[in-house]
Amino acid sequence: MKKFGILLFAFLGIVSCSDDDDANVDPPFEGETKKYDVSAVGESGVSGTAIFDENEDGSVTITLDLDGTTAGVMHPAHIHYNSAAEGGEIALSLDPVDGDTGISETTVDMLDDDQTEISFEDLLEFDGYINVHASADDLETLVAQTDIGGNELTGESKSYDLAEVDIEGVSGTATFHERKNGETLVELDLEGTTEGNTHPAHIHMGSVADAPGDIAITLTSVDGASGMSLTNVAMTDGTEEEDGTAVSYEDLIEYNGYINVHASADDLATLAAQGNIGANTIW
Length: 283
What we know:
The structure is a single chain. The protein folds into two domains: 33-149, Sandwich (Immunoglobulin-like); 153-281, Immunoglobulin-like (Sandwich), CATH 2.60.40. By secondary structure, it is mainly beta. The chain is globular and about 70 Å long. The termini are far apart. The longest helix has 22 residues, at 2-23. It contains three helices and 16 strands. A hairpin with a 2-residue loop joins strand 15 (256-264) and strand 16 (267-278). One of its GO terms (biological process) is superoxide metabolic process.
């Protein structure tokens, strides 16, 4: 009986030690994942997803998974600084997308400058966008694109009507899209514009009824062929004497202002379309 008690005590000791050892074992690594939709540029028909996976060693695996790529062609891809609406230099080169599979997979922990470390958390806030190009010989032609990091759109937006003024048939909408970083993508979408024309556009102070008001924010000119203009707005226009001031999405949707779209750079007096924004549309 005494011998049995000793054996039982020893067994319980082994179980106890095993439980303590298990308690000290770290749980398996489960990295986070972030997915962005990648949209076609123009009529390319190329679209899909960009997936960022956090790795245990601190690196990030970036996978592009695209439909509509061209068999036998490698499509160069990069992460650029700034938003797609602004454009910017290459921050990080990705492995080209294989046109046969539509796949690119790149594991990174450093930007192209070989000096700046980049983590999963850094990329979630990064001021950047992804470009996918037609080929190494045709980098000017983009087939797909998406904003990433702080430039990601939240899904919140506000649209305003732009009415015909001096040019018959030109009208449309201005849509303000909120970004994760609080900045705004301003999208102008007009009908009735003509190919070969470009139409300067601005946000002015005051309302249409009080026009003319000073220019507060210069927008990207509307392309006559597509009727489109995309502008990233983070600041009001500055002057020679004074810098502009920061302006957020929340500021813009309450702003005392209006938008003018002009006939051309040589004919700013002729208005193609116009509409109130922000506080001037609240009744």
